[in-house]
């Protein structure tokens, strides 16, 4: 009886949700020219990411190089980094503020995990 009930519930779920259960979700494609973060009181902001070996920690014995991924502070309090040279692909990244604080990109809903940290994901398309 339980097997028949489970089958009926499964059929109802499929009928209610339509065929969307069988279609893989596609992440939206993005093409940004720069990353930006509004944090006017920061002293320094870096982008740590797949494309720069997470500021060097992947290759330099767990030490973040303060020169890698440095963002430029604008007069309006935004920090920016040009990413127009990135090749097509999917990249994880996070902002590293004042040399100790990890912040994911709150303007980007796509996330992943890097070393127990929630980080952002950007998709670069043609």
Compact description:
The protein is mostly beta strands.
Write a structural description.
- With 126 residues, the chain is mainly β.
- The chain has one domain: Immunoglobulin-like (Sandwich).
- It has one helix and eight strands.
- The chain has one helix spanning 2-17, and strands spanning 34-38, 45-49, 72-73, 78-82, 89-97, 101-103, 111-114, 117-124.
- It is globular, with a radius of gyration of 20 Å.
- The protein starts with a helix and ends with a strand.
- The model is unreliable at 10-30 (pLDDT under 50).
Write the layout of secondary structure elements.
Blueprint: H1 2-17, E1 34-38, E2 45-49, E3 72-73, E4 78-82, E5 89-97, E6 101-103, E7 111-114, E8 117-124
What distance lies between the first and last C-alpha atoms, to the nearest angstrom?
54 Å
Number of strands: 8
| Main beta-sheet annotation | 5 strands, antiparallel
Which ranges are low-confidence, i.e. pLDDT below 50, for 5 or more consecutive residues? Answer: 10-30
Number of helices: 1
Mean pLDDT: 81
CATH homologous superfamily title: Immunoglobulins
CATH topology: Immunoglobulin-like
Key words describing this protein structure:
mainly beta, Immunoglobulin-like, three-stranded antiparallel β-sheet, 13% helix
């Amino acid at each position: 009886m339980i097997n028949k009930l489970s089958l009926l519930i499964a059929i109802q779920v499929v009928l209610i949700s339509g065929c969307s259960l069988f279609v893989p979700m596609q992440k939206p494609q993005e093409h940004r020219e720069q990353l930006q973060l509004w944090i006017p009181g920061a002293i320094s902001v870096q982008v740590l990411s797949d494309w720069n070996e997470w500021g060097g920690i992947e290759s330099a014995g767990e030490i973040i190089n303060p020169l890698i991924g440095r963002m430029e502070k604008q007069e309006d309090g935004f920090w920016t980094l040009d990413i127009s040279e990135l090749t097509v692909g999917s990249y994880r990244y996070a902002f590293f503020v004042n040399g100790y604080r990890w912040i994911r990109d709150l303007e980007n809903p796509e996330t992943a995990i890097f070393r127990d940290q929630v980080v952002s994901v950007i998709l670069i398309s043609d």
